[in-house]
Amino acid sequence: NEILEIKNVTKYYGKGSVVTKALDGISFSVEKGEFTAIMGASGSGKSTLLNVISTIDRVSSGEIFIEGARLTEMEEKQLANFRRDQLGFIFQEYNLLDTLTIGENILLPLNLQRKSHEDADRELVRVSEALGVSDQLSKFPYELSGGQRQRAACARAIITNPALVLADEPTGALDSKNSKLLMETFQMMNQSLGSTILMVTHDPVVGSYANRVLFLKDGKIWNEVNRGQRKRQE
Ligand code: ADP
Ligand code: ADP
User: ABC transporter domain spans which residues (predicted)?
Assistant: First the structure.
């Protein structure tokens, strides 16, 4: 059951004599329930890869499919709807809005989908209990610990049941204690809630929490490591 298929994707930046080939014919796929890390040195193409998957940027050639939908042929408006309905994002800064309660923050993506109150409340209970923030819903972000804020941001990313959760250097602004807490939360989302996660990191310790690591170099995948025992059995 493939969630993501990348087929021979190439991405160039610039034009004329200053062209950079940021992605060089990359192909791989991600199955439902996998927790995949993309690792590589600075400049290896990690952010570019995540940007074309998250529909923020366009490929130069090749194809990207998410749950069978061909991103590379969609128009901007379709892409915006696709992002809203099928993708979950976890940012480096938690991006919780200070003026909203934790519950209101977590509900934001559902409000964009114009879900009924009953459906929204049920989903809020589901994700906030799963991630251990159900007692914090009426508090404001500044009243929570760093770990709790992370879990709230994760709850917000998965409240729409996205096909794919994308995270670009999610631990980039965190100390080692909070990095570990966030990776434990990712593992819980992956193992208990079945979230399919694709994460970019340059930190080997962070990457070691994933069950599969793809190594990028000069816009190509040069190695892949699998830890089969963490893979979910459907
Ligand atoms: P990473 O995330 O692994 O650090 P990037 O995807 O940011 O790598 O960059 C890959 C290559 O593409 C690098 O050579 C970088 O300089 C280049 N690049 C990235 N974004 C741009 C851009 N907007 N314009 C020109 N070159 C870019
Ligand atoms: P976590 O393991 O989720 O990071 P902590 O052990 O850091 O949680 O925090 C324990 C308790 O202390 C939490 O219930 C939280 O509400 C409270 N707390 C932590 N940091 C703050 C803060 N900056 N402001 C208010 N309360 C805080």
Answer: 4-234
Q: Which among 153, 164, 147 is positioned nearest to 105, based on CA atoms? A: 153
Ligand 1 centroid – CA 43 distance (Å): 5
CA–CA gap between residue 165 and residue 90 (Å, rounded): 7
Confidence (pTM): 0.86
Indicate if ligand 1 lies below 6 Å from the C-beta of 25: no
User: Among the atoms of ligand 1, which is closest to the Cα of residue 11?
Assistant: 12
- Is any ligand 2 atom within 6 A of the Cβ of residue 148? yes
**Amino acid in the structure at residue 152:** A
SS3 194: coil
Q: Which two tokens mark 172?
A: 């980039």
Q: What are the pLDDT tens digits along the chain (234 aa)?
A: 899 999 999 999 998 888 999 999 999 999 999 999 999 999 999 999 999 999 889 999 999 999 999 998 899 999 999 999 999 999 877 689 999 999 999 999 998 888 888 999 999 999 999 999 999 999 999 999 988 999 999 999 999 999 999 999 999 888 899 899 999 999 999 998 999 999 999 999 999 999 999 999 999 999 999 986 444 443
